[in-house]
Design a protein that fits this description.
Layout lengths: L8 H28 L4 E3 L2 E3 L1 H21 L10 H10 L48 E13 L25 E11 L2 H10 L11 E10 L10 E2 L25 H13 L1 H5 L5 E5 L14 H5 L1 E2 L12 E3 L36 H20 L3 H12 L6 H26 L12 E2 L2 E3 L8 E6 L7 E11 L19 E3 L9 E2 L4 E8 L6 E9 L2 E9 L8 E9 L5 E7 L5 E16 L5 E14 L6 E5 H5 L2 H14 L3
Parallel strand pairs: 9-11
Antiparallel strand pairs: 1-2, 3-4, 3-7, 4-12, 5-6, 5-13, 8-10, 13-14, 13-15, 16-17, 17-18, 19-20, 21-22, 22-23
Helix pairs in contact: 8-9, 8-10, 9-10
């Protein structure tokens, strides 16, 4: 029988002891960290735990804030210079200022200066270390487009501003023309530009910037989807241009044409508002010009205070300055003109029928009778009576846009005929006054500062349907032109105009097209599709249906009736160009598409459908695009064009 091994008391209870020590250690740690909080730090002469430290920091911050707000600035002990000067004058030149001071010496010394010396303000007292500053770029640059029937002529007040006589308009400028246009605008900070001049050593009286003009460059989107190189844009004739002479020096290095430079500077200074924000052409029909959607500017504010340009004396600093409202511009109402297509809704387009002030039949009959009478008076060469009847139609709120267009033509013809008669009678030239004047809008500035005006540039050389993006820069008058002695680099005095840095480019903008098409559906029994083509003609949209197959060009010239009336008071038949330039590449019938449906509550859902898809190449940019019949039916642009066409068709 094996001998039983003996187990000591320690060995028997070792595990229990270790377990007890572990429990005791854990209890000790819990009590220490949760009750006594040994993690304390010194703050403001006290040991504080995490909880107390947060409260102490907040209290200390409040005390510092109150101390800063309630602290009174120290008042420096400034000697009473005025009293000392008065006593010295009253007591004689050599009297001591006080009893303890020794008498003044019997020799006159330089009088001490009191306070800071005043800066020099006279010409010629400037330092000879000035560096000419490059103008800053405009910011927040945006663009707007439209298509209008406008009088493409230079501003009569500003053409040849430095000449003895303003340039006269040509006969071609007295007739309205169809044109697509783009206006590019941004904000330019005069305050920041002036600060940059002062930092560069400009004398105070030379640190005010004056704009000579606004310049633009544009890029065109190509068939590859990339943009072309930047190219300079020729300014529209609506933009004033001032002849700026170049400084000329004689053999002794003296400026020889100071008078010419002074005259140019005076003109530029007087025309600053018109150089920054030139008026647009007088619009006969189509899209009225509007200010581009600048940040902080509310569209439509210019319509309330707009006034026509009348005299040169009213141009310049006398123009009222109107700050743009700080609120963000509200969303455009349904049917409003967008920046991509030049379309306007029924509430703004002049060729959508206006509400009738009288019963429909009576009002319409009165207008037609006046129009016939005006035409008869014109044929009888009774120009005053013809103009009177035509103006009555123009001012009649019940008149349609086509009626007003015909009446305006009678007024223009009467004015031209009267001018020709006066010319023959007097034996000298007489200009027609039938061209309307452009409309001036209030001066626009940034919502942040009145010293940050808007500047813009009109481009009427664009091609309808093409997509561009723009950038702007300003040209400033060199305040040190002809003054090489004041400049660190004397050659900078040879420049009359300083051209600035380019702004960031605008978002791409598609120029308002003159023709648009929409897919309506397939042709029964044929591999063809029906499209509706809308063509813009003399301020209104006309519609024509076309049947197209793969390989066909969409649209073409068609002889159709127009709202313009002939001698028999009936709508004229004219050949209208409905050519879109698009060529059909493919027709996919019953193509699965995903349509989005929006409810009245603002939410939307998607549904699958089958639709005709027309694939085409766009001649404007060479890109391959497609139009979906189901989407075209719900396109807001299509609905607006259709409404305009329905209104025009009533008068045909």
């Amino acid at each position: 029988m094996a001998k039983k091994s003996s187990i000591s008391f320690i060995e028997l209870h070792l595990e229990k002891g270790l377990l007890g020590l572990t429990v005791a250690f854990m209890v000790f740690m819990v009590v220490r960290y949760l009750v006594f909080e040994p993690n304390k730090v010194e703050f403001d002469g006290q040991r504080l735990g995490p909880r107390e430290l947060d409260e102490a920091l907040v209290r200390k911050a409040d005390e510092l804030s109150r101390a800063v707000q309630q602290a009174a600035p120290e008042k420096p002990d400034v000697p009473e210079y005025a009293r000392q000067l008065e006593e010295s004058v009253k007591g004689g030149l050599f009297r001591a200022l006080d009893g303890d001071s020794p008498p003044l010496p019997q020799v006159l010394t330089v009088a001490p200066r009191f306070g800071q010396p005043l800066p020099g303000i006279e010409e010629g007292m400037e330092i000879d270390d000035v560096v000419v500053v490059t103008p800053l770029p405009p910011v927040s640059v945006v663009a707007e487009t439209g298509i209008s029937l406008a009088y493409r002529r230079s501003p009569p007040l500003l053409t040849g501003a430095l000449d003895a006589e303003p340039a006269e308009a040509t006969d071609e400028e007295d007739e309205p023309v169809e044109l697509s246009w783009v206006t590019v605008s941004g904000y330019f900070s005069l305050e920041e530009q002036q600060a940059a001049m002062m930092d560069s050593g400009y004398a105070g009286y030379r640190a005010k910037p004056y704009l000579v003009g606004v310049e633009a460059q544009r890029q065109e989107i190509t068939a590859s989807g990339e943009f072309s190189e930047w190219v300079d844009v020729a300014p529209a004739k609506a933009i004033p241009r001032v002849n700026v002479p170049v400084p000329e020096f004689d053999e002794k290095g003296q400026l020889a044409n100071q008078a010419d430079l002074d005259a140019a500077f005076d003109t530029i200074r007087r025309l600053q508002p018109d150089i920054m924000q030139p008026t647009f052409y007088a619009v006969e029909a189509g899209d009225e010009w509007t200010i581009p959607p600048l940040p902080g500017y509310e569209a439509g504010v210019e319509e309330e205070e707009a006034e026509p340009v009348e005299a040169a004396a009213e141009v310049g600093p006398s123009r009222a300055v109107t700050r743009a409202p700080r609120a963000a511009p509200p969303p455009a109402p349904a049917g409003g003109r967008t920046s991509r297509g030049g379309l306007r809704g029924a509430g703004a387009n002049p060729f959508v029928r206006q509400p009738q002030a009288t019963p429909k039949t009576d009002g319409r009959k009165e207008i037609l009778d006046d129009l016939r009478a005006a035409r008869k008076a014109a044929r009888d060469k009774d120009w005053d009576e013809a103009a009177r009847l035509a103006n009555a139609i123009i001012n009649n709120s019940s008149a349609r846009s086509t009626d007003r267009a015909a009446a305006r033509k009678i007024v223009r013809d009467a004015e031209k005929a009267r001018a020709q008669e006066e010319k023959r009678a007097a034996g000298r030239g007489a200009r027609s006054t039938g061209v309307p004047t452009p409309v001036r809008v209030p001066f626009v500035t940034s919502p942040e500062s009145e010293q940050e005006p808007a500047v813009w540039f009109h481009d009427d050389s664009v091609e309808p349907g093409k997509t561009y993006r723009y950038r702007l820069r300003v040209a400033l008058w060199n305040r040190y032109v002809g003054r090489p002695a004041a400049l660190r680099d004397p050659t900078q005095a040879n420049q009359s105009v300083l051209r600035g840095e380019w702004s960031a480019p605008t978002a791409p903008i598609t120029v308002a097209p003159k023709q648009r098409f929409f897919v309506r559906g397939p042709v029964f029994g044929e591999p063809a599709a029906t499209v509706e083509v809308y063509a813009w003609h003399q301020g209104y949209w006309l519609k024509q249906d076309f049947k197209v197959r793969v390989g066909d060009a969409i649209g073409g010239p068609v002889e159709t009736r127009t709202p313009e009336l002939g001698e028999d008071d009936r709508p004229k038949r004219q050949e209208i160009d409905f050519s879109t330039g698009a060529v059909v590449l493919d027709l996919r019938f019953d193509e699965p598409v995903m349509l989005r449906r929006t409810t009245d509550r603002g939410d939307f859902s998607y549904r699958e459908a089958k639709s005709l898809v027309l694939v085409y190449v766009d001649s404007a940019d060479g890109q391959v695009k497609e139009r979906v019949a189901e989407l075209d039916r719900a396109d807001p642009a299509y609905r607006r064009l259709k409404d305009e066409w329905d209104s025009v068709r009533e008068g045909l």
